[in-house]
Design a protein that fits this description.
This protein has 12 helices and 9 strands. By secondary structure, it is α/β, with parallel strands linked by helices. It has an 8-stranded parallel β-barrel, surrounded by 9 helices. Strand 2, helix 2 and strand 3 form a beta-alpha-beta unit. It starts with a strand and ends in a 5-residue tail after the last helix. The mean pLDDT is 94.
């Protein structure tokens, strides 16, 4: 594989599974990724989603970091408008202090939740408007100088935790280019603006102290299995789980009910979200990722191993690493 491979761990809570079991799966995935040669593992902030356990993102990163030795870990990402920049600087400064040279901080401006959850988070609906200023304030706490006189992050100051801008639109691409930061596009669930956003980012990029040339990370779903039929079955299970997540309102659909919704016009949205998905045996997955990397004009791929079961996700992690020729530790 010409491009580095990283992992986006969605910390999935499968049917009949507990959050504690999900966390154990995240530790096992990071340990496997470290051994197999993946570059980094990221976790995303989501709230009020019964099938995603990564709501307290920095806490999960700390737990996984304590059970691994060398792989980079980070947020992919923290939804900055939900927090004060100082709080995030202190959290990730603490992580970097405890695990030097291993921590990334990806930043997004979406709520990571619905309207009611936004209110429960005490989030101002207008807070996303100050995202560019909040990124700069956060950067000041980590790299200096501080942008608020007399206020420093402890721990945090001087840790130089690398920042990444996450996005699925031209807004994030333009901001990342202006600030000279790496840009991660969420094409694993929001594929529409991928090529336009990457082209804009590369065209408008300005070198910075952190980065002297553009760096694009593109998200892509992966289901690698020992047989094509097994991979397709896992894909269908993943789509059914998304139907319950987006349309269930707290209830679980039967397989027949989920399949009916998937066949409906509203269900087509689930298929559209997974436009960029590599599904099949390892050779098929590798062929897809090679072409996707070129299509996305990416410098790195971050793969979301999609399956409702921990064992099958871990098998996908292993099969892809073998097919890509990643260097085992």
């Amino acid at each position: 594989m010409a491009l580095p491979l990283s992992i986006l761990d969605l910390a999935t809570i499968g049917k009949g599974q507990t959050a504690a079991e999900s966390f154990a799966g995240s530790v096992a995935m990071a340990q496997s990724a470290e051994k197999l040669g993946y570059r980094r593992v990221w976790y995303a902030e989501h709230h009020n989603m019964s099938s995603i356990a990564s709501s307290a993102t920095s806490v999960l990163i700390a737990h996984v970091a304590a059970h691994t030795e060398s792989i980079r870990l980070g947020a992919g990402g923290v939804m900055l408008p939900n927090h004060s920049p100082l709080t995030i600087a202190e959290q990730f400064g603490t992580l970097e202090t405890l695990h030097p040279g291993r921590i990334d901080l990806g930043l997004g401006r979406a709520p990571g939740s619905d309207q009611n959850t936004m209110r429960a988070l005490r989030r101002d609906p207008m807070s996303a408007d100050s995202f560019p200023q909040d990124v700069l304030e956060l950067q000041g706490y980590l790299t200096g100088p501080t942008r608020i006189q007399g206020v420093e992050a402890t721990p945090g100051k001087g840790t130089d935790v690398p920042l990444y801008i996450l996005g699925s639109s031209l807004f994030g691409a333009r901001l990342a280019a202006q600030l000279g930061l790496p840009y991660a596009f969420a094409s694993h669930f929001a594929p529409n603006a991928l090529q336009d956003a990457v082209a804009l980012y590369r065209r408008e990029f300005k070198p910075s102290a952190q980065l002297d040339a553009p760096h694009v990370i593109a998200g892509v779903n992966v289901i690698a299995a020992d047989s094509a039929s097994e991979a397709q079955a896992m894909l269908q299970e993943t789509k059914r789980a998304r139907v319950s997540l987006f349309f269930g309102g707290g209830r679980e659909f039967t397989d027949d009910e989920a399949d009916m919704i998937l066949d409906s016009p509203q269900g087509q949205h689930v298929a559209q979200m997974m436009t960029y998905s590599a599904v099949g045996t390892p050779d098929v997955v590798m062929d897809y990722l090679e072409s996707f990397g070129a299509h996305a004009d990416a410098d790195e791929l971050i793969v979301a191993h999609q399956s409702t079961g921990t064992d099958s996700r871990l098998r996908s992690v292993e099969l892809l690493a073998q097919a890509a020729g990643l260097a085992r530790v």
